[in-house]
Amino acid sequence: MKKVLTTLVCWLTTGFLTILIAGNFGSGDGADSLTSSTFPLAEDSIAVLSGVDTTSVDSLPVAKKKEGFIRKVINYFARANKPNPNKRVDFGVLPGPHYSSTAGLGLGIMASATYSMDRTDSLLPRSNASIFTDMTTKGFLLLGVRGNNIFPHERFRLDYRVYIYTFPTSFWGIGYENGSKDENETDYRRLRFDVMGRFLVRIAPNTYVGPMVNFRYIKAAEIDPAENMPLFAGQDLKVSSRTVGASFTYDSRDFMLNARRGWFVQLDQSFTPRFLGNNYCFSTTDLTLCTYREIWKGGVLAGEFHGALNYGKPAWCLLSEVGSTSRMRGYYEGRYRDKDILEAQVELRQHIKGRNGIVVWLGVAEVFPRFTKMSWESVLPNGGFGYRWEFKKRINVRLDLGFGKNGPGVMFNINEAF
Q1: What are the angstrom distances between the C-alpha of 63 and each of 24, 31, 41, 56, 76?
Q2: pLDDT, tens digit, 9 for 90 and up, residues 228-278
Q3: Reduced to 3 states, what is the DSSP secondary structure of residue 400?
Q4: In terms of Cα–Cα distance, which of 299, 331, 333, 293 is closest to 317?
């Protein structure tokens, strides 16, 4: 599996670089056809990037001195966020080195695209898709894609997520008390494959309902059975789950990847029953509530509340977890886990100048087996700050430094956290 992951990541990385080079440095009919119909990185500047001045003298093109590779790369990023309403797909690729104590030194390559399903409708929100890969010195391998497809007249929406990753990680057991004990740390390698989809039908302005499905496969390997198995409470180290459910969404955001105003409410009620072949049967209620408001020039105050409640007996690897690149940033993902979670965060986003911005945030979370077990002593604090650079129009690359109970963490990603 590790060889397969490495091959996939290398293949996608090569593809990204090929698209980048073809879209910016190519010339002639073939390159123009690729960029204008499939991956239009810079339709309006192909001639400039290919070193040809289209201004004619006596109807003949005048050759210019060819730009060097470094200059072409600089020009690509300089023009990446220029709006172009004639583009069928606004697509771009961005490599980014990063470092964290848990993953080591790594190279992430992210691609982002926005597009419209009906270019004649100027009020139709643009659909979006993001592709991401990552490789680090500590054996982290990731390949994934996520997006939101808005159909003409906003009659339907398709939200999707697919990713596969493997990396060496740790497990501290189930519950706040186990997560608080450093001596419980158990090293293992996690492999996870996750596919999720929602197909939503509009029933009122900004309001959608529809079915959802989710398939997950998780495997824990490289564990010392005699020393570490007690923490896993005798549960399987290889788990697959097949989940179905219904979803409700209300979305009045002005732009879903970087909202400045509006509301987002999503309620998923899902079921993982035995008749679908699940060994661990449970149901989940998952609620996300976000709001955005411009409070002064260039300043946006964003808030999010999230809760996930599980009923039944979910496997240890399907429990609610604290820590991700979007919530409780800085916490080691999965160190604190239990049946239920409540978490909230408030973030101030401030545009500084040009394509640069900063954010600061505060957050809290708690994991618990049932409401009667909640206590102030088990509330986890979170805070941090980050830098934003506008890669594409209103699509930011973010570098965040988050602080939690057990130390800081660094995150590099694309699009806002929420």
Answers
A1: 17, 18, 23, 10, 20
A2: 566 676 788 899 999 999 999 999 999 998 999 999 999 999 999 999 999
A3: strand
A4: 333
